[in-house]
Design a protein that fits this description.
Largest sheet of chain B: 8 strands, mixed
Distance between the termini of chain A: 31 Å
CATH class of the largest domain in chain A: Alpha Beta
Distance between the termini of chain B: 39 Å
Helix content of chain B: 25-40%
Largest sheet of chain A: 6 strands, mixed
Number of strands of chain A: 17
Radius of gyration of chain B: 17 Å
CATH topology of chain B: L-fuculose-1-phosphate Aldolase
Strand order of the largest sheet of chain B: 3-2-1-4-8-7-6-5
Number of domains of chain A: 3
Structural class of chain B: alpha+beta
Number of domains of chain B: 1
Number of helices of chain B: 6
CATH topology of the largest domain in chain A: Aldehyde Ferredoxin Oxidoreductase,  A, domain 1
Number of helices of chain A: 24
CATH superfamily of the largest domain in chain A: Aldehyde ferredoxin oxidoreductase, N-terminal domain
Strand order of the largest sheet of chain A: 2-1-6-3-4-5
Shape of chain A: globular
Largest interface: A-B, 36 and 31 residues
Structural class of chain A: alpha+beta
Oligomer: heterodimer
Order of helices and strands of chain B: HEEEHEHEHEHEEH
CATH architecture of chain B: 3-Layer(aba) Sandwich
């Protein structure tokens, strides 16, 4: 067997029992690994009656057939669970070293069940798996926990939660390798609900590759493309992902002050260029990644990884804040407390608007950088107003009587692109299976960057087909599991051949995209089983009804409805957004309906 | 229909004709819109497309549009059913057709086509137009390749957008012209690329 280890590790924390079982290879071929495998396993494991924070929910950590092979960016892994923030199916993924190490420990996936009576951590080594007491770690922050458990770059890697996860914040992340995040949808709270503080892995075996010559060729050709692309060889290494701040602001699609405006007047002050000029210490890279987009930044008070574009936006333009040092510090604090920075920043922005509208009595006001750190501390400790903010913006806005002020879809806070200025992005957010997400498809490439070719960002007709294709593509990249930044330079036809080289199973490019479509439809079935309907495929009313008042997107609202109708047809779903039996048969999912 | 869609057909159709990639009435173009497609009208001139030359019909279902659509409709439908393509460009690149008469695959020697195409397979079908056999064979190949040649007939290229599919078509013909010129010069080829022996396995 090549590409997969063939083993799933299962740990029941209630019974403190460790077992392994064989990976079903039919499932592996159909869903690959990572997100796809996680979704398929979750379908059987967690039904509609299970509360996300109950012991019956599970955490599924998964890697893919390319993981740890040395193919560019083959370091990533995913976690799948039912989201405590949205109630939808959830997967989140992260880079660094942990995923590579887990694969080298000899597993394709880890399923964690139940709830430990007292805090524990799991240690996975080539010679065995152990559950250890973690009471001495409970309450420790991420950086300290990672150090105490012996993080050692590519030998021993630590994944853990911080106080946010321990205290069941619905926007808590799981952190790995010190400062990387499985961020969105609150997986950290699920881990906290299981009294599971950390998972430490030590690996040994490098996966074997079936066709070494073809694999070397794919490495060579992929490196050529990554070097040739200005995005992956210049923009991302030089400025990090925050290079997008000025680009998105210039087209009038940078949401500002909780999406009240679409351009931030002080964008330059928080741009990737400014980050590089004033705060960059050096670049860093995940394992087997030649792009090296990670920033090591510092201020007078902190030094650490980040911030990424989305984080810079969430604590910057979204909160009306132009103090880049304060944003870097908020990012570092989120990493240490274990928060999703997009949801944390956007929830604070929501509170700022509630306050300014007189619906909430607080000192949170747009532009006030000084409130960020104390607010995050209060959220992690669930102290005072922080207790409400730790629930995310949807629950916060509902509690204070203005649900429309949560800039979220299905309860997940929207990232840094205003759907009024990027029509396809709006459809992407509205239909994303885990709630509003920019990583479930890449309309940025088509509508802004011109990859592979620029399409009009205001065009409505025909957009649905692009969105669906990119959603399928994202799902397959998350199932391999690779970094989506490679896809800025390298097309799926390369991934298909790399997969064929590793596994010996010939995947045509079209078949690979079909895997993504299968994953997407399975996730849709999961959400339908949870009771989600067409009515949930929508955007906040502000984006549908209030036109942008100024700048290059002036006069535009999101024209969601015609795109949504077209989208259901593209997907082979009925007018209610339910996959037709013919589509499920085509994808081999008809047995699950 | 969105004005931008017509402009795209018009401009790329014109470019194909001007570049000599089609004769006066040859070739065709289409894009996918969900479960529908828009395709050039049968007999329309690619270099002179008017709004009424764009025909919309179903990918799965027939309607009155099939009366007017290109004779290659079946091929386009099959490709959309079997591949992730959102656009198709079919043209008659002369030099590439000439090479297809004596080769089972075209492996570029110039830099750009090596970089972007690696290898273009040549398919063979006795009835080279409008048959289900040909449509299936083409669509199967296009699951793996973004452009393929049909021996003696022409190229079929797919893309997310029509200009992407146009790009593959244009690059293929340029590459074949360069290969032809190199043959005419008839001097020993000096390899300048790496790992080219693997191109045949693409």
């Amino acid at each position: 067997m090549h590409g997969w280890t063939g083993k799933i590790l299962e740990i029941d924390l209630t019974q403190r029992k460790v077992t392994t079982r064989a990976l079903d290879m039919d499932i592996a071929r159909l869903f690959l690994g990572g997100r796809g495998l996680g979704a398929r396993l979750l379908w059987d494991e967690v039904g509609a009656t299970v509360e996300p924070l109950a012991p019956e929910n599970v955490l599924i950590f998964a890697v893919g057939p390319l993981t740890a092979t040395g193919y560019q960016t083959s370091n990533r892994f995913t976690v799948s669970t039912k989201s405590p923030l949205t109630g939808t199916i959830l997967d989140a993924n992260s880079g660094g070293y942990w995923g590579m190490q887990f694969k080298r420990a000899g597993y394709d996936a880890l399923i964690v069940r139940g709830r430990a009576e007292t805090p524990v951590y799991i240690e996975i080594k080539p010679d065995g798996v152990a559950i250890h007491d973690a009471q001495h770690l409970w309450g420790q922050r991420v950086r300290a926990t990672t150090q105490i458990l012996g993080q050692n770059n590519n030998k021993r890697n630590v994944l853990c939660i911080g106080p946010a996860g321990e205290n069941l914040s619905r926007i808590a992340a799981i952190m790995n390798d010190g400062a990387r995040a499985l961020a969105r949808g609150g997986p950290g709270a699920v881990m906290g609900s299981k009294n599971l503080k950390a998972i430490v892995v030590e690996g040994k075996e490098r996966p074997e590759i079936l066709d070494q010559e073809l694999f070397k060729f794919m490495l060579y050709e992929t490196r050529k493309l990554l070097r040739a692309s200005p995005l992956t060889s210049q923009a991302l290494p030089e400025f990090g992902t925050a290079v997008l701040i000025n680009i998105i602001n210039a087209i009038g699609a940078l949401p500002t002050r909780n999406f009240q405006q679409s351009q931030f007047e002080n964008a330059e002050a928080i741009s990737g260029e400014m980050l590089t000029e004033k705060h960059l210490v050096k670049n860093a890279a995940c394992w087997a990644c030649p792009i090296a987009c990670t920033r090591i930044s510092k201020t007078d008070r902190v030094e650490g990884e980040g911030p990424e574009f989305e984080t810079t936006w969430a604590f910057g333009a979204q909160c009306g804040i132009d103090d880049l040092a304060a944003i870097i510090e908020a990012n570092a604090l989120c990493n240490d407390l274990g928060f999703d920075t997009i949801s944390a920043g956007s929830t604070i922005a929501c509170a700022m608007e509630l306050t300014e509208r007189g619906l909430l009595d607080s000192d949170l006001r747009f532009g006030r950088a000084d409130v960020l750190a104390p607010t995050l501390e209060a959220m992690a400790a669930r102290r005072g107003l922080g207790d409400d903010l730790a629930e995310g913006s949807a629950r916060l806005a509902r509690k204070y009587g203005a649900p429309e002020l949560s800039m979220s879809v299905k309860g997940l806070e929207m990232p840094a692109y205003d759907p009024r200025g990027m029509q396809g992005q709006g459809l992407l957010y509205a239909t994303s299976n885990r709630g509003a997400c920019h990583m479930r498809g890449n309309m940025l490439s088509l509508e802004v960057l011109g990859l592979p070719k620029l399409i009009d960002r205001f065009q409505v007709q025909g957009k649905a087909a692009f969105v669906a294709l990119h959603q399928n593509s994202a799902a397959v990249i998350d199932s391999l599991v690779l970094c989506k930044f490679t896809n800025l330079a390298v097309a799926e036809e390369y991934f298909a051949r790399a997969l064929s080289a590793v596994t010996g199973i010939r995947y045509a490019t079209g078949e690979l995209i079909r895997v993504g479509e299968r994953v997407w439809n399975l996730e849709r079935l999961y959400n339908l089983r949870e009771g989600f309907t067409r009515a949930d495929d929508t955007l906040p009313p502000r984006l549908l009804n209030q036109a942008v008042t100024d700048g290059p997107s002036k006069g535009w609202v999101s024209h969601l409805q015609p795109m949504l109708q077209e989208y259901y047809r593209v997907r082979g779903w009925d007018e209610n957004g339910v996959p037709r039996l013919s589509k499920l048969k085509e994808l081999g999912l008809d047995g699950l309906r | 229909m969105d004005e931008r869609i017509y402009e795209m057909f018009r401009d790329i159709g014109r470019d194909l004709y001007v570049a000599g990639l089609v004769s006066s009435h040859g070739g065709n173009l289409s894009i996918r819109l969900g479960d529908r497609l828009i395709i050039k009208r049968r007999g329309a001139m690619l270099g002179r497309l008017k709004p009424h030359d764009l025909i919309e019909t179903g990918i799965e279902k027939n309607d009155s549009g099939v009366m007017l659509a290109s004779t290659e409709l079946l091929v386009h439908r099959t490709i959309y059913r079997m591949t992730p393509a959102l656009a198709i460009v079919h043209c008659h690149p002369r030099t590439a057709i000439a090479f297809s008469l004596s080769r089972d695959e075209i492996i570029p020697i110039d830099n750009e086509a090596s970089y972007l195409l690696k290898k273009v397979p040549v398919l063979v079908e006795e009835f080279a137009s409008g048959t289900p056999e040909m449509a299936n064979k083409l669509a199967t190949a296009l699951q793996q390749y973004k452009i393929v040649m049909l021996r003696g007939h022409g190229s079929f290229a797919i893309g997310q957008t029509m200009d992407e599919a146009f790009q593959w078509s244009s690059i293929l013909e340029e590459s074949c012209q360069i290969a032809l010129a190199a043959k005419l010069i008839n001097e020993p080829f000096i390899e300048y690329r790496g790992m080219t022996t693997e191109y045949a396995r693409w």
